[in-house]
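Q: Convert this sequence to structure tokens.
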Amino acid sequence: MDSHSLYPKEKSQIDSICIGSGRFLRAVLVPALVAANLKPIIVQTRGTSFMKYCSSRKSSNNNNEEDDTLTYEVDTVLHNGEIKTDVVLCYGAGTLGTDEGKKDTLELLDGIQCIKLIGVGITEAGLASASSQSMRDLFDILSRLHELITVGKIICNNPHGKISIVNTDNVPHNGDTIRRHMMTLANDESEKGQQMLEFLNEYVVFHNSMVDRITSQRPGSDGDVPRAEPTPAKALVIEDLGGDLPLGLLGKDTQDTHGVVIRFKKGELNADIALKLRVANGTHTAVAHTMALCGLLMTDVLSSPKGSIHYDSATLLMKYLDELFEHQICTGVDVTQSLSATAFDAKYVYQDWRQRLVHAHFGLSTLFITQNGASKGGIRIGPTIIDLVNHGKQISSCTVFALAAILRFLTPAAQVPCRNGIYRGWMDGTTRSSVKSDDCEKCDVTKIYADGLSYNLDEGWYEFCCDCNVHVPNIFGQERPLPEVLGSFATVHQPTYYYPVVRDYLIRKNGGDLSILVDQPQTKDIFTGIVKAVSSVYARMVAGDGMLDILKSLIHHQTCDILIDGHHPRSLDDHQPLHYKPSCIPDDSNLMEANIGKDREAITNVVFSEVSSVETVDLHTHLLPPSHGALCLWGIDELLTYHYLVAEYFMTAPSDVSPDSFYSLTKREQANIIWKALFVDRTPLSEACRGVITTLVSLGLEKDLHARDLDSIRKFFRNYRDDGIEGAERYCSLVFRKAGVRYAVMTNIPFDPTESQHWKPKPKEYSHNFRSACRVDPLLAGDRNTIENALLASGYDRTIEGARKYLHDWCDVMKPEYMMASTPHNFVLQEDLYVPQKKGRFAVNEDALNQPFAFTDILSSNCDTKCDGSEEELASVIDENSDFLSEVLMKVCEERDLPIALKIGAHRNLNPRLRQAGDGVVAFADANMLARLCIRFPKVRFLATFLSRNNQHEACVLATKFRNLHIYGCWWFCNNPSIIEEITKMRVEMLGTAFTAQHSDSRVVDQLLYKWAHSRAVIAKVMTKEYVKLSESGWIFTREEIRRDIQKLFGKSYEEFMDKTLAS
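A:
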């Protein structure tokens, strides 16, 4: 053997050449070739380290000098921690890195009798172009083989006489790439170029391949000894479409022991590569950035046992990967037509990969894995996103988190300048401002994790490179490196501020590579949603919310829509329904304390987000729970026959349709008539009609709605009705959840026999979504005759004390939130309370009076299971001098600390024939009556709303004068967007947040969906303008302050008022 190579004297046995000495090649390809009875040599592309290592081994082992074979070691770390060291044969070692070494290698070929395979184990950079030295060296070897084969000095005894070229770098289509480079170099040959082209076409096969065995190096070996995981099932996959590989590689032992898999059909290798990229590499990239940021620097942390310091983190991270695979990667593989792979194939790969990932004694550097992270997001995660979106599947929060984590990793500490393309980032738990630009080489605890890149765990920083540029015109006029743009956001911002840079990264070829989703009209909006979701999570990450804390909140399978911060309206005049959506920014997020500034877009987005995400208190409704049977109104027929729509119908109803004839029809028949009249024959423009549309769309019935298919819509509700009370409970829970209503206060009328049965003898249980309110009309009106008769019939003394006890007892049964009163004009006893005794006289029907509160207007109690219950009766007439008012009602309210709710200004039975739809409005109600009550009873709290638009300003003035008065809602005829906007704006200007912006007054459960969605949109619009005005005046506010204000408007002010203690 001469000094420039370690080639054997007897060269004829050599039949394969491996160019390169990388760990993959030595740990995967060479052992497989030896097992296949091939005789390979290893030729370094540069340097002589491998030769020196082999020479030292030969010397230390005192091998027979006549034995030319060389050996090297490969360590395999078994799952139990034991290290198994294999000694691998090779039949020579050389180098192409020196002229002499290359000369020796080319001369070696003269002594070879048969050539079967050339392995190419060079780096990705070596495959980048035909002009690389590695490609030129390979071409020179092939050229020499061409000469020798042409003159018959060398043969190839592979099945078809073709030399196999096998690459061990995972560049996609690596064989095709090498072939293309060889053809390019052949074309550049001035002499014999055509002959070389023919040789390459006829005598050489460039196999596409994939290598998959995690390999590092034995500690202290200086890279000479590969340290690898146990051999995976697909350690080396080679495409052999023409059956040209050496037959030994097809042996069962080679495949079982060394993980060699041969693919004979077109597309199979592509599926293997895609599965590796999506499953193994995709999950690796997804977890590595998060782990590195959290200071978890080796992947073997994922196998942390129970009770260890990292167990909780490992469990969370593995659950994250399992969710990512199950709901995204596997689904993406299953739906795509571009891969000849199935969900079963994906699961097989993931099971194998998961076992490798949790190897307790073999891990890789997470920082090392993050290299080229910007492009890996597109290469490894992007294809899954594209396939999911193109096939109508949802993008989950786990995928969003993975993309956001990459961006967070690529965000430098703002005050540390870039040096030679190297940036410095900060780890989770370290403040961004604490990272300095001191020379890292001077610190003993600074470690190197890749060429030119270091980290310091004690100081909480790491270095990284990034070759992805982005263009964000509102920040920089031209393209700039992604980290430079991300680093320019020196302070914490709300998510909307990051939209432009996140969007541009996601569409870049060397970034997220999702531009196809922007180019397709049907997916453009979905892509925008992904951008907004990633921006929201990224904003939390850079604000300092813990990476694992964020992940913990997202780990359950959720769609990315839940992570979008707000609905981001097109303009302040947008009147699309603003549906409830839980906030993606939790109360404890650092984003809550960040100043929003004067940016109108940021203010708009935050306000709309906070309004859409606030859980509201509906402080007055006419709803009843499912436990109350038929009194719980819900479903499409109840929606369509709501008295608003009945009144609208009769404005244009045919003359031969009378109210009596209409009301004689069944509920379904009434609904059919209104549906045709208001939704088919006319455009449903009114607020009441629009409410039905919004409700059905929010329930997912848009398709049926567009088809005007009422019967199909009914089928949806029938699925719940068929399950009886359980179905009603499920439906009510669905509506409350979708509407974002924390609880609704009912209007309970226990004197109605159909309702009282649900309170006596024992109140029926109902959901926490419902709270009661008790009607006390006669006491407010001071109707002595009615009250005394009721007391007598119920066994109470007809005294003030008896009346108080009567009221106390009923409060014990109902446990109301407040008392409520709307005493009717022309107050009379119910007809069934009287029975004839003697001519001209009446006596009390004691059985009827036995019902609590058996005193009310005739209309109000004329209710059976077919009716909806009454709206509030006639307009109130309060007897302010009545003892029942001062000594009973007010005393009980003071003693029980119960407020009284007043709804003022309705004119009942304006058109009696229309029944409930026939009520009107008193244009100017007497507001002074409310003022006198507040003055006279300072220890009683009053809740009040007015029906007439004309009373709203006076109501605001009253609220500023009496601390025992709380104004709420836009009632009935005021519950229209234009009037809600006007009233809310006036109230904010006069009362700040010391009022409740809205109540639904819903009588049908479904109405919660539209009444709150419509009101939220209007209130968000009003509040956005108010905050913009405030910011222009010089006030700076935080998201936390906006959330606090919005919560007050949607129920917190009401609850604070309810908890208020009034001075004596």
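Residues 268-293 form the longest helix (26 residues).
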